[in-house]
Amino acid sequence: MLLKAGFLGRTTTSNSELGFGSANGVWSTAEQYIVKAFGTWPYMIEAVPNATSVNENATVTYNVVSNSLVDGTYYWTIDLDGSTAVAADFVVTSGSFTLTSGAGSFQVQTVAEFVTEGSEQFRVYIRATSISGPILSTTSFVTINDTSLTLTGTFTSNTTSVNEGASILFTASVSASYTGTLYYTITGTPTTADFTDGLLSGSFAVTSGSGTFTKTLATDYITPESETFTASLRYGSTAGYIIANTSTITINDVTPVTPTYVGANTRLGSTSMNLPPGLQQGDVIVYAGFKIGSAIAALPTGYTGSGAGAVTGSNGRVNAYKVMGATPDTTISGLDTSAGHVVLAFRNVTTTAPTATFTSAYPPNPASMTVADGDQVAVFAFVNASTTLTAPTGYTNMISASNSTITVGGASRTAFIVGITSENPAAFGSTAGTTGLTTATRLRP
User: Fold this and answer.
1) Which residues pair with 305 in a beta bridge?
2) CA distance 442 to 372
3) Which residues of the chain have pLDDT under 50?
4) Can you name the residues that pair with 359 across neighbouring β-strands?
5) What is the bridge-based pairing of β-strands 210-216 and 242-245?
6) How many other C-beta atoms are found inside a 10 Å radius of the C-beta of residue 416?
7) In this predicted model, what pLDDT tens digit does every residue of 49-72 receive, in sequence order?
8) Residues 299 and 333: beta-carbon distance below 8 Å
9) What is the DSSP letter of 315?
10) Which end of the chain has fewer CB atoms < 10 Å from its terminal CB, N or C?
């Protein structure tokens, strides 16, 4: 029932007073937007829900009528203090609607929380001016039936024993034909470095109660190393409640296959040179070019740069690599005719791009780089002197000194090639000379 009269506090331009509504029962615009002095506003507006009880995830429509308020925008808010429902039970807890010719409507959308909590009730405030404005009226309570209960289900992996470098398929099967997002967390001895995505938690999609995702184990070449873990299926977030856990999964170590040195060669003043004999499909050729006085003109034909060395002090150096195909190359071509060239051939290394660092100084000590167990670092040093560098402790000389000396314009340049496993490149011994160029290339097993 809509009443047209009542007491309320009315603010005028001169003072505040308590007055009656107008005799004809119609409130003026100014009177409608004043703060109530006591109790509630007179029943100038009423919002009626289209149901007194709804299931979770249902929408409640409120039909609004008024024969006293002017047309315009009004607001609604969920009474979170006087209701047993909480904000998480709704998509939004406030909004606005338009009153036209004394009528309007709005909707409140409930949420399926998938948490067993029992039925809850809520009511709505109708407000003027804003969602925090004066309350014009309060609706009756609506009951939300607890129809989305805590999810139950299973969480399995396609294996309980997996090698490093292999993948695991996880499968979730949950109740209520749930469609949406679920989450997982991994607990145990592995760290983020043990997975290629670097994650110990995440989310995945579930449709009609079923969903899958894959995790791939990294190969860290750390042995012996015993690692086990379980994965937990969660709702709501990675900190949400646990629906199910997998069985314990064991990660098996993969014994590293040490990169095998196949051969090397050096050359100066030519557009091509021979590669080491006996190459096989999958072998990786690592190339380094050095030039005193100017930049390297170009990479060898068909090679990929693994860090094109910038020109420093007018001296050029560059690194590149190529993976041998079914018919391995016998030569390398497209070389800068005024540069020194060195190649190393390796077997049992990853075909992903090697990483390289460069230095231009004397002595030509290679720059530090991050290496992991099983890595091999190939260091190429080129010295503007008729001498042989002294290899640091731990290096293996891949080319004898007599085979590594090349001549430029009557002056000897020594190309000294070494390899090192699982360490940062170390410093060379001191020797005579003025200019040195070095590249260090990291190779993964």
Assistant:
1) 320
2) 10
3) 1-41, 308-313, 400-412, 420-423, 430-434
4) 438
5) unpaired
6) 28
7) 999 999 999 999 999 999 889 999
8) no
9) B
10) N
Neighbours of 408 (CB within 10 A): 16
Domains and CATH numbers, the chain: 7-145 (2.60.40.1930), 153-252 (2.60.40.2030), 260-443 (no CATH)
- Residue 420, helix vs strand vs coil: strand
Closest to 375 in 3D by CA, of 422, 333, 342, 414: 422
With tokens 């047309």, the residue in question is 71
Structure confidence at residue 256 (pLDDT): 65
Per the omega criterion (within 30 degrees of 0), is the bond before 364 cis? no
> What is the C-alpha separation between 188 and 207, in angstroms, rounded?
29
What are φ and ψ of residue 119, in 5° steps? -70, 155
Count of CB atoms situated within 10 Å of the CB of 100: 9
Q: What is the pLDDT of residues 4-42, one digit of tens each?
A: 333 333 333 333 333 334 444 444 444 444 433 333 445
pLDDT score recorded for residue 207 = 97
202-208 own/partner pairs: CB under 8 Å, 24+ apart: 202/238, 203/238, 204/172, 205/180, 205/181, 206/172, 206/174, 206/178, 206/179, 206/180, 206/181, 206/182, 207/179, 208/177, 208/178, 208/179
pLDDT of residue 342: 80
Which residue pairs, CB below 8 angstroms and at least 24 apart, start in 304-310?
304/353, 306/353, 306/354, 306/355, 306/356, 306/441, 307/355, 307/356, 307/357, 307/358, 307/439, 309/356, 309/358, 309/439, 310/358
Residues 6+ away with beta carbon under 8 Å from 24: none
Burial code of 36-57, b = ≥16 C-beta within 10 A, e = fewer?
Answer: eeeeebbebbbbebeeeebebe
Give the global pTM: 0.57
> Which pLDDT value is given to residue 400?
43
* CB-CB contact of 104 with 137 (8 Å): no
Q: Minimal CA–CA distance to 45: which of 93, 95, 5, 103? A: 103
Question: What separation in angstroms does the CA of 303 have from each of 32, 286, 311, 323, 443?
Answer: 80, 9, 19, 9, 16
Helix (H, G, I), strand (E, B) or coil at 29: helix
Q: Return the closest-CA partner of residue 298 out of 338, 342, 356, 354.
A: 338
Dihedrals phi, psi of 295, to nearest 5 degrees? -80, 155
